[in-house]
Design a protein that fits this description.
With 136 residues, the chain is mainly α. Helices cover 62% and strands 0% of the residues.
Amino acid sequence: MAKHAVGAPKKYTDDIIRAEAKALLQYVDKTKVPMLKEFCAKRGYCSETISKIFELNPDFSQALKIAKDLMEVKWARLGLKCKNQAFVIFSMKNMFGWRDKTEVEHGMSEDLTEKFKDITFAQVKEKLSAFCNGPK
């Protein structure tokens, strides 16, 4: 009796995965507005395949990181030229994790922050009340 390998046959060999990595980088390089799902669909597999199978291969994992960076740059450049910048901004937020960031300047120096770091809210409230109500 011949021995058979246990488990499902390996559909994506390392050679196939390396070829897909090369194809992905070529696609991103040659496509004006690259989208990962489009690449996957054209290659005959769903986008989940990339995260489940291909990222296990270090060559493909590196190619995917580079491809995502290049896609982000291309979409950002598109946003600079596009008439509908809101669409591009929305796309950047959804595809590349961009987000609006608001920074608030509180105006306290590090010296003041250090001086008041141990004061409780109750103490602040008491001092504020005394200040507003004046001496008793």
